[in-house]
């Protein structure tokens, strides 16, 4: 018996590790239950961790959870071309930072930890970041021509409108991004009387998608 027992142990030693695991589970059904429960708990922990990372990523992107520097700059109300917008990248004497989202221009000067020269996305300052938000890319938009975004899909447009809504809730609306073919700079509105109308347009766009 001892010889046969020794041969059996020698044979088991040569078998793959997962074969022994299988035999253990088969011989003791409770092990299978514990294994399934452990796998489920592990999945839930990983899923929750991933969701928290994504949430923190978005919150950090918008500056939530940090003390945003309250902007002391006077309100700005006017439209900009792409080339004019480039000047508002935080390097001006007043330090004002503007970005364009879905043709709406927002003053993000209060979020220097995000868009400032030492922030997370300094390359976005003074740019139309619509495509960056759609594709969640960090590259600087080097295009100095007006982007009509005619190639966007319905899903991409919906995503852009959602981003626009989030920016409108977080930052002051300055004006619109216009092409060089639009009205001259002197004819553009400089007051804030159309700000509520622009926010209403965003809400209407959200309602039609």
TrEMBL record:
Signal peptide: none annotated. Residues 180-195 have a biased composition (Acidic residues). Residues 80-178 form the Cytochrome b5 heme-binding domain. The keyword Protein transport does not apply. InterPro entries: Cyt_B5-like_heme/steroid-bd, Cyt_B5-like_heme/steroid_sf, MAPR/NEUFC/NENF-like. SMART domains: Cyt-b5. Pfam families: Cyt-b5 (PF00173). The keyword Magnesium does not apply. The chain crosses the membrane at residues 28-46. This is Cytochrome b5 heme-binding domain-containing protein. It comes from Drosophila mojavensis. The lineage of its organism: Eukaryota, Metazoa, Ecdysozoa, Arthropoda, Hexapoda.
